[in-house]
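for the writeup, i need someone to sanity check this before i put it in the appendix. the sequnce is what the collaborator sent (i think, or maybe the updated version? ugh). structure was predicted straight from it, no edits. if anything looks off just tell me and ill rerun, i have time this weekend
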Amino acid sequence: MPAAPGGPRLLLRRLREAMAEPVSPQARLDRIVTLIAANVIAEVCSVYVLSDDSTLELFATEGLNREAVHLTRMRSDEGLVGLIAKTAEPLSLSDAQSHPSFSYRPETGEEAYHAFLGVPLLRAGNTLGVLVVQNKTYRVYSEEEIEALQTTAMVLAEMIASGELQALAPGTGPVARRAVSQRGVALADGIGLGHVVLHEPRIVVKQLIAENVDREVERLELAIGEVRSAIDDLVERGDSIGTGESREVLETVRMFAHDKGWLRRMREAVQSGLTAEAAVERVQSDNRARMMRQSDPYLRDRLHDLDDLANRLLRTLIGHEGNGDRVLPENAILVARSMGPAALLDYDRTALRGVVLEEGGPTSHIAIVARALGIPAVGEITNATALCDAGDAIIVDGATGEIQVRPGPEIEAAYGEMVRVRAKRQEQYRALRDLPAVTRDGVAIGLQLNAGLLIDLTHLAETGADGIGLFRTELQFMVAQRMPSAAEQQTLYEAVFAATGDLPVTVRTLDIGGDKILPYMPALEEENPALGWRAIRIGLDRPALLRVQLRALLRAAAGRPLKIMFPMVATVDEFTRAKAIVEREKAHLRRHGHPLPSDCRLGVMVEVPSLLFQIDEIARAADFLSVGSNDLMQFLFAVDRENRRVANRFDTLSVPALRAFRLIAERAAAAGCPATVCGEIGGKPLEAMALIGLGFRHLSMSPAAIGPVKAMVLGLDASAIAALIDAEMARAGDGETLRPALTAFAKAHGVPI
């Protein structure tokens, strides 16, 4: 049986009129199901809403027993309606009662109806409910009718997502507004309570129903052409998408942009009466629903590419690019698929209370910057940007890696109490600020800060740290729009030295390349960027870049001690060549009458495993060593620290890792070469305890870690932990971890970890 004359376009116009009527939400919904039933010549039209208790509730019906509204409820996997909700796919049956999933509900009176068509109510790929039409005859619904019902479902999904229906069923709410709890990976400690700000805000499609279908088709075609052309230009130029993606990803996006099926579905959606923007949104929501349910990780990852393409098309249609204003409201929690450190630094940190990412691991640079800024952060939250809307209440627990979206009052109260407890603990740490970090048996431990921004230096006074053990100079380059000049670099270093006073500062030369791409440098495609052209390798191959930085450092440190550290050194020869460049710059400054540092010490970051086999030579050649544990562990275990599939396959407290750390500590001590650990493990009390037991006496860490690590040091007997580690390493198997034994030791001896 064909649809009523006028088809979906007429239905959408009538729905628009119904949505504008000044009536109650229930009356509006009742009117809508009546209009839909009349349009598709169905004897029944029903709307089921997925509630926050994971049940499907009948919210409105035309044709079934109206007394069943808000009484009929079923599990989200029960019956034909549950099957549609689970699969997020339309279901058309000529005889519903013969389907194995059919569930009979006597209170509805639906036993008289045979033909059944149901479509999911989708928004951002999430199922919010199900729209059903039924007929007494054994009829087959046409593709046009299915398409019309899917288009109508989009309008209903927006109505549900708005929260308008929440008052219709007291005690529960639509699933779109339910509380969500999800666990990812802890990136930066702390608890943040606030409201969602989307880093890349979803385009809000305000006009769903077309006034002029032909005009909307034309707008869609023009926008598709513009997006295709822009992507083709990027591919031809070899540029990245703008957030560091590889050419392979860009090629994938271009492939989707030319996919005939994707384009056909959007055109059909416009022909059914939607605006061009609403058509893009509807088709992408369908894609999301399918791909989120895929078991193949590769196919799920392609969802990001489709999202990127749909967002490009929407921005082109609406007529704006970029992420908009970076000014934040109070108590903002940033939610993003991914984000670089430069993007995070663009935001007003005084209003920022937390960060939630779909991607990003504990040793990613965004995590390092978040820790430096003291901002709680959680990564690897699946589908984070679709879980919440801008303005939603959200809690970020950077200790456990959990987030709570739209939390209930009990959850809010519990986290509020946790914040008060943490504040009290921070007061206790602040009370330790002026105490020297000395173990119970009299061993002094130097605790320094990792920094990269001037704002980090304010933490020196707050924490009582002994100085800056690692100043990352690349952050200045990463946040700039062009290469900083020698004068600009010198100004920054002078400000750093002025802020630190007499405290020591160890400055690391530019560590770019790999995953740290400067926005104004040409993208370099490498098969293995972490093992490629980066850090000291760039400095030695492009000595002008290194010389400008060294000259700025030497001039800024005039009359005071200076410590310079070179990253990613793989051979003693590389360090020797870097030293020669320093000597050349010092000679240049002498010739021109510039004052030099009172003392200039040159060191090496031990992060490439080849140095473990040259440790005696490098310890004799360098004035000091600093262990970059993040990269050292990554390279030692051949594990990409950004790859969630393998990042947890090794433990930094396993026997192989501890042997490497002990080798460095012992050989550096034998050569009289001071050795510091500046990687992330130095800021974890349990791992720091192990490093002290291995012989390290200097640790550098994020500001938030100083208090907990100092508390551990004050409660520790260094000789006792050294004896335990010796005994355990002699006993343990090669791949075994000492974490349980170290934890038990701390508990038995009252060492706070």
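The chain has four domains: 7-176, 180-199+329-423, 213-318, 441-749. The domain at 180-199+329-423 is CATH 3.50.30.10 (Glucose Oxidase; domain 1).
thx in advance!!
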